[in-house]
Amino acid sequence: MDPITTITGPVSVLDRADVDTDQIMPKQFLKRVERTGFGEFLFYDWAKEPGWDLPPNPILATGRNFGCGSSREHAPWGLQDYGFKAIVAPSFGDIFYNNCTKIGLLPVVLPEDDVKAVMEAGEATVDLENGVVAIDGREVSFHIDEDASYRLLNGLVESGLTLQSSGAIADFERTRERSGPVTTSL
Q: Rounded to an integer, what is the distance from CA 184 to the centroid of its chain?
C-alpha cells in the first residue's frame, strides 16, 4: 500500500449516522476476494435514490458510528477503490476502523462539531504525521493508534512489519538451531 502523510482535497459529505457495512457494500457483491473493483457498488441501494450525489473525493466526512455492523472487509475496499483516502467521523465500528488501517484507508475520529465543520468547509487537509485536520484556517487534533500510524505512514501492511524484522528473525532462528531443540520437563 502507498504511504500516507498528508491528504488534501475536496470533501464528500454523507451526513448519516449508523451506516453499517451492509449499506456501504451490499451482500450481493461479496463474491470475490480481490481488493479492487468494488467502488462501483458502493452504497448501491442509496445510489438509486433521486438526488444521490457522492463524488469520489479524497476525503469522506460522515456521521457517527460509521462502518458498524458486520466485519465485512469489502466495505473499506469499496471506499478505497471509489477514491476515498481518508474518512472523517465522530466514531467508527471497531472492526471497520481496524480494517481501514490495514489497507491504507485513514479513519479519523473528530468531535461531532468538528466533523460538521469539515462537511461545511468542503475542503480539508488531513495530516497523519502531525495528527491534525486543517479546516478553514484552524487545526483540530486527532489520535490514531501508534502501530496503525506507523504502518500507514510507511505504507506497510501487517506482514510488512514482520518483513522489516526478517534479519532479526533469521538471527534468532540460527541461534535456536545451534542450541538444539527446545525441551520441556513435566
A: 43
CB-count exposure of residue 38 (10 Å: 0-12, 13-18, 19+)? buried
**Contact predicate 15/63, CB 8 Å:** yes
Report the predicted TM-score, pTM, of the whole model to 2 decimal places.
0.85
- Distance between CA atoms of 134 and 86, rounded to whole angstroms? 13
In order of 4, 23, 62, 139, 158, the CA distances from 119 in angstroms are 22, 21, 8, 15, 32
Query: Per residue in 77-116, pLDDT tens?
Result: 999 999 999 999 999 999 999 999 999 999 999 999 999 9
| CA atoms of 144 and 20, how far apart (whole Å) | 21
Joined together, the cell numbers standing for residue 182 give: 527446545
* pLDDT lower than 50: segments of the chain: none
CA distance 65 to 146: 22
* Vertex 168 angle, CA 164 and 170, to 5°: 105
